[in-house]
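Collaborator request, handled under Task 6.
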Amino acid sequence: MDISFFKYQGAGNDFIMIDNRTSPVNHRQPELISRLCNRRFGIGGDGIMFLQEKEGYDFEMVYYNADGKPSSMCGNGGRCIVAFARFLGIIGTQTNFLAVDGPHYATISESGDWVSLQMIDVNEISTDGAAYVLNTGSPHFVQLTTKLSEKDVYHEGKTIRNNSTYSKEGINVNFAEPAVQGYAVRTYERGVEDETYACGTGATAVALAMARHNHQTGSISTPVKVLGGNLNIKFEYNGETFSSIYLEGPAVQVFKGQISL
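C-alpha cells returned to the collaborator:
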C-alpha cells in the first residue's frame, strides 16, 4: 500500500503529515510509526501526525512521537497541522480542532506560514530544587542555566528525564538562559529521546516558569530563541493561573512524497 505524505517543520521541529480522512491508515502500529520517523530507514521526523475528521471540529490531530508511541500535546506539531489543514483547504485563517489534551483554537496568516496556537491554561507550577515543573499539554522540567551554547543537553537532559522521579512517565527537559530579548532555550524531548531543534510546549513552559520566577503578572509576551528559529509566547498571568496562552511561530511545508507501507 502506497500513501502520500507531507513534511512540515516549525522552527526546526519536523513532522510527517498524513491526510487520514480517506483510505485511512491504521496508525496503531508502533513499529511502522518508528520506521517512518527513522531518519535513515524512513522519511525522518521528530514525530508523525494524522489529520482526521472529527464531528464538531474542523479536524482531529492524532500525534505519535518518533519512538512510535502515542504522545501528549505537541505545540509545534499543532501549529504545523494547522498549516497543513490550510493547505488542504479544510480551514481558512482560523480553526478549532481537537488534540489529545482537548480543543485548540488557532489562527494562521494569509500567507499560510505563521501560526498562533492557543494552548491549555496552566494552574500549577511546582519546583524540583531550583528547577520548575509544569504541564503545558506535555510535562516539562525548566532549569535556568548559563553558557547554554556549551551545554551537553543530550547527556544532562537524558539524566534528568531518566532519574527516579521522572523515569516512569518521562519528562521533557528545558535549559533556559536569559537573552537580549526573552530567553534562549534548548530541549531534550522524551519520545524522541534526544535534543530537538525546537519544542513548542517546552518554549511555552519556559515562558510561564520565567514569569513566575521573575514575579511578573498581567499581559506578557516572551520571545524564545530555539536552535531552529524564533518563537513567541503570549499569555495572561494573575499570580495563580496562566490563561489565554498562545504559542506563535513559523510552520512551513518542506516537501511531499509517497512511501510504501
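The cover message to the collaborator said: "Residues 177 and 220 are 18 Å apart (CA to CA). The helical segments are 30-37, 75-88, 153-161, 200-213. Please let us know whether this matches your experimental observations."
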